[in-house]
Amino acid sequence: GSGGITIKKTNQALIVGIYEEPMTPGQCNMVVERL
């Protein structure tokens, strides 16, 4: 299936979000950026 990852760099860490269908890349980005 379709999936992927989103990586967000903060001052102290790298946050990695892994998603699979039916989540879209945009939805994953919003969740990871809120962390």
Describe this structure in words.
The protein is of the alpha+beta class and 35 residues long. It is built from one helix and two strands; from the N terminus they run ββα. The protein has one helix at 25-34; strands at 3-9, 14-20. Strands 1-2 form a two-stranded antiparallel sheet. 0% of the residues are buried. Belongs to the profilin family. InterPro entries: PFN (IPR048278), PFN_euk (IPR005455), PFN_sf (IPR036140).
Notable traits:
40% strand, alpha+beta, 35 residues
> What does the main sheet amount to?
2 strands, antiparallel
N-C termini distance: 26 Å
Tell the overall outline.
elongated
Please tell me how large the radius of gyration is. Answer: 10 Å
Strand order of the largest sheet: 1-2
Short structural summary:
Its main location: cytoplasm. By secondary structure, the chain is α+β, with helices and mostly antiparallel strands.
Q: Could you give the topology of this structure?
A:
Elements: E1 3-9, E2 14-20, H1 25-34
Antiparallel strand pairs: 1-2
